[in-house]
Specification:
single chain, Nucleotidyltransferase, domain 5, five-stranded mixed sheet, 11 helices, 41% helix
């Protein structure tokens, strides 16, 4: 597959994202390597629906997508002042994610594509995160392939070499909980509410990170895999030993937990950085942090220092594009559509057109 870009004019793509608890639709116009413009980016968060349960309930999430998606898509088109005839493609998340939600977005997008005659592009949700750094107009010319990616989100924690669109090589992944899941479960344990990640970070800002001695799972061991289950258990044990927690106890636990996460991420990522720079030499210029947990300022700071110490420039998408959104799906679809002959020639498999199935699991390295 060639990464050569043959476009002489921008493409306009509608993106739909429904893999978890955000219903999102967006329209992006641009050319890879030449910048892009987000014409609309509408996100409906389901926090209120799931708050009474302390986490995302798949059936409730799917129903909310059904109730909201048509209106959100219409709003995205209206804000962009476009109709279906103005689109070059419609992209939708085909997985991985909560299967009910994935089905809602995927089938809606397929119906729109079939009715309008606009090309359809099924997108791996993780690929949306992986390519978002190339979406921002001020970054698009500065982040060429290859780059090293640390993808951290509620369901995923992976280190990958991004060699091109559709070309991802995994160096490490979590063997149990994802880092975002560990944040969410810690927040639930301490009664901090949802979303868990931002809640833990807010409390950590007023805490003493040295008060509790928490483990750094897999630290110093070979490979680039992650583990956060033991850390989560250690937080629970520390909280249980304290009995009734006051505000400072919770702040100190959050700070100690967040520091352990930063250390664990750094210890595994430094190994991947060494592998990446050794393999690609002068081409190894950028380290990208992406996914919802990339919005955490402590993790950003830790990774910035780590990248600098290894001669890499760290690049992070804007915070609004780190969490789930339709713009990242639209951009990933645009990247695929822009590849020379890629959309025209591949009628099965990954592109799959209207036959693409919904997937609860879909490893990015299998693209």
């Amino acid at each position: 597959m060639s990464d050569a870009q043959t476009l002489t004019s921008p493409l306009t793509v509608l993106g739909i994202e429904t893999s978890c608890d955000e219903t999102a639709a967006a329209i992006v116009r641009g050319r890879p390597g030449h910048g892009a413009e987000i014409l609309s980016n509408v996100v409906f968060s389901q926090l209120e629906e799931h708050a009474p349960y302390g986490g995302v309930v798949p059936e409730i999430a799917a129903r909310a997508h059904i109730d909201r998606l048509d209106a959100l898509t219409a709003q995205a088109l209206e804000e962009a002042n476009l109709g279906f005839d103005d689109l070059d493609g419609i992209a939708a998340t085909a997985g991985p994610g909560l299967i009910g939600g994935v089905i809602v977005g995927l089938m809606t997008a397929k119906g729109m594509a079939a009715a309008s005659g606009v090309p359809f592009v099924p997108i791996n949700h993780l690929e949306g995160h992986a390519l978002t750094v190339r979406l921002s107009s001020d970054l698009a010319n500065d982040v060429p392939f290859p780059y090293l990616l640390l993808l951290v989100s509620g369901g995923h924690c992976q280190l990958l070499v991004v060699e091109g669109v559709g070309r991802y090589r995994q160096l490490g992944t979590t063997i149990d909980d994802a880092v975002g899941e560990a944040f969410d479960k810690t927040a639930k344990l301490l009664g901090l509410g949802i979303p868990g990640g931002p809640a833990v970070e807010r409390h950590a800002n007023g805490g003493n990170q040295k008060r509790f001695t928490l483990p750094r799972p897999l630290k110093g061991r070979p490979g680039c895999d992650f583990s956060f289950s033991g850390l989560k258990t250690a937080v629970r044990q520390a909280a249980t030993n304290l009995g009734e927690l006051n505000a400072q106890d919770k702040a100190d636990l959050c700070a100690s937990f967040q520091a352990a996460v930063c250390d664990s991420l750094a210890n595994r990522t430094v190994r991947a950085m060494a592998m990446f720079t050794s393999e690609f030499g002068e081409e190894a210029r950028h380290f990208v942090l992406a996914g919802g947990v990339a919005a955490n300022s402590a993790i950003r700071s830790t990774m910035t220092d780590l990248a600098s110490s290894h001669g890499l420039e760290m690049v992070v998408p804007p915070v609004a594009l780190c969490t789930d959104n339709g713009a990242m799906i639209a951009w990933a679809g645009l990247e695929h559509l822009s590849l020379e002959g890629h959309f025209r020639e591949r009628s099965s498999g990954r592109m799959g057109t209207l036959a693409a199935p919904p997937r609860a699991r879909w490893p990015l390295s299998s693209q």
